[in-house]
Amino acid sequence: MTPLTSCLLLSAALFAIGLAGALMRRNAILVLIGIELMLNAANLNFIAFWRYGPNPEALTGMMFVIFSIGVAAAEAAVGLALIISLYRHTKTTNLDEVDSMRG
Amino acid sequence: MIVAILTVAGAVAAMSLRNLVHSVLALTLAFAGLAAVYLQLGAQFIGFAQVLVYVGAVAILIVFAILLTRDTSATITVISGSWISGGIVALAIFGILAWTVDHSAASQGSTSLHPAASMQQIGNALMLQFALPLEIIGVLLTVALIGAVTLAMQENKETK
Fold first, then answer.
1. pTM given for the model
2. Per-residue tens of pLDDT for chain B, all 160 residues
3. Would you say B69 and A84 are in contact if contact means Cβ atoms under 8 Å apart?
4. For residues B55 and B32, is the Cβ–Cβ distance under 8 A?
């Protein structure tokens, strides 16, 4: 198994764990944590392909990860603010109980 | 290899522990493990940025959110009702990804060792080739933080 393959497998495992968490847990904060894990798995893929790709001098993968980390930080801030706002309105963070838009 | 096992274990613990604070601690372990993987891959800047942003800022932010939204009524249903289908979807996606990685050209390719990117190269690239995206991400972060503050503050003004 080459190092690139092991990196990609680690990234796939992290993505699957994050997806499972986001789909299976019912706490809004844990769903957000799952999304963060999936974003990190994508970042690991970028770094792995930058490192073992044909031309690492271009730094493209690394730049992509820098901007991706910035966007993920913004997403986490807005997401947590939304969760806090939701908690103020409904007094719960359980996503199954937030069903006021159910038809 | 050890770092990878540590990272996956942290991620699994973060997603499966019942106590939310323990869950965030496990998540911090997973993020630190990922930072170590980045360092091993020669991406020093990304590794330290990962430590600063995720282990530092995002983990603290999530802890504060958990403390602010602590549910007084004990939530019995930690796992959602549709957890079987969610688990099946996640397992299927992992299976497809692993199969694809195993059969792709990446698994046969030669692994040539390349020098890691120095800080000077990264700075030059950020200031010259990627200057516009850098400005845009600055604006995006400002807008997102102002938006987060207004979202979290709104209710206070109405109740006053």
1. 0.86
2. 788 888 888 888 888 888 888 889 999 999 999 999 999 888 888 899 899 999 988 999 899 888 888 765 545 555 656 778 888 898 999 999 989 988 887 666 665 666 667 788 888 888 888 899 999 999 999 999 999 989 888 665 555 4
3. yes
4. yes
Amino acid identity, position B153: M
In this predicted complex, what is the ipTM?
Answer: 0.89
* Nearest C-alpha neighbor of B97 from the set A94, A64, A15, A88: A15
Residues of chain B with Cβ-Cβ distance to A2 below 8 Å are 106-109, 111
CB contact under 8 A, B90 and A70: no
B67 Cβ under 8 Å from any chain A Cβ: no
Paired tokens of B35: 């930072």
The C-alpha atoms of residue B146 and residue A83 are separated, in whole angstroms, by 16
